[in-house]
Write a structure and sequence with these properties.
The protein is an alpha+beta fold and 64 residues long. It has three helices and four strands. The chain has helices at residues 5-14, 20-24, 55-60, and strands at 2-4, 28-32, 38-45, 48-54. Strand 3 and strand 4 form a beta hairpin. The longest helix is centred in the N-terminal third of the chain and has 10 residues, at 5-14. The protein is globular. The protein starts with a strand and ends with a helix.
């Protein structure tokens, strides 16, 4: 599944206290320097659901 960064930002705005992992319902969000405008959600990577997001987007919502 692919989501635009704008869609993810809107999702996060609706859940300001949530982590990106919780908002996207994934185990972990990984950063990719080569992605620019989409977040990829992969359903079965070593048995877990993960997301790959542009580095800037991941940094924007980093907690802690």
């Amino acid at each position: 599944m692919r989501l635009t960064c704008t869609a993810v930002e809107e999702l996060m705005a609706g859940r300001p206290d949530a982590t990106p992992e919780a908002a996207l319902d994934v185990f972990e969000v990984f950063a990719s320097g080569s992605l620019t405008d989409e977040v990829y959600i992969l359903d079965n990577v070593a048995g877990k659901r993960i997301a790959i997001a542009p580095t800037g987007l991941k940094d924007k919502f980093r907690r802690g």
